Amino acid sequence: MAKPISIEVWNPSGKYRVVSTKSMPGTRWIKLLTDNDCRLEICTEKKTILSVDDILALIGDHCHGVIGQLTEDWGEVLFSALKRAGGTAFSNMAVGYNNVDVDAANKNGIAIGNTPGVLTETTAELAASLSVAAARRIVEADQFMRAGLYDGWLPHLFVGNLLKGQTVGVIGAGRIGSAYARMMIEGFKMNLIYFDLYQSTRLEKFVTAYGQFLKANGEQPVTWKRASSMEEVLREADVISLHPVLDKTTYHLINPERLAMMKKEAVLVNASRGPVIDEVALVEHLKANPMFRVGLDVFEDEPYMKPGLAEMKNAVVVPHIASASKWTREGMATLAALNVLGKIKGYPVWGNPNAVEPFLDEEATPPPACPSIVNAKQLGLPSSKL
User: Which residues, other chains included, contact 383 with Cβ-Cβ below 8 Å and sequence gap of 6+?
Assistant: First the structure.
């Protein structure tokens, strides 16, 4: 017999049973569900990551929808169990869904929700923060200070890299990559080189306009270049930030050969997906090149780091906090809840999953739509005409 899972129940008499595998920030998401006749059960188990068996116990034999997390393994076992329990919806509280077997969800008729549109600026800010922290050796200096080692100013003490006038490289100039680029260009007057399969016309126009502004005020204008290959970015940029999707073509995108192409004092930042970097190769490169620095928010085998990485003084490492602003995390919880609620209610799918402001306005009733269903076409779900 399965071990009972501890839960917190809201609106016990609700018609629709919705399960959340974790407590999530804010209370609006709870109110939206309970005001719409949902019985909400929030898992309160003291585990960072729930097992498949744990989630099976939560689903039980009667469940209309589940809100889950990127760390959970959602495949055939869970989707078939949710279908048997009468469920039709699962939503990640995340923009990514690498933890989801979409084919298994399609087979069982389960709509898969995610939460894009609310993470862009927050994630870009974290990537920019890692860039500055790594370039200026802020974490090293902080640890030095706290250890009581500072006994006066020295000419060579924690000399880092000046960003102004240098080149920032962006691999993947989508929403987050472009937002990051704008921050680095406008904030530090860096030049841009980017690689993307699609031209980022809006970003190019921004850099051109900002360059003209600087020139009109007697300053050196910034420039942009769309690289013909990723390798061109790696060779030319002083700071490189990775923003690709994770698939078979981007697994270990950064490998020993590509690390060797980069400048000896380059800064590499990853706030996208851990497996785009060969972490073992990265550790070896950091050892061999002490002036090469990285800022990492994600890791190849989360929650673990590859051996040796934690000891690298030229690595800034943080625990997957790119989306960790109060507004963003509360917004993610709201969008995840509305994905599940919308499917239960039979609402259509929102036409633009990146234009989520109407769902996040706390003073207004959300539109009668699912904010973002990644397999809507496969399931033949209608689109909102709003």
Answer: 348, 349, 350, 351, 376
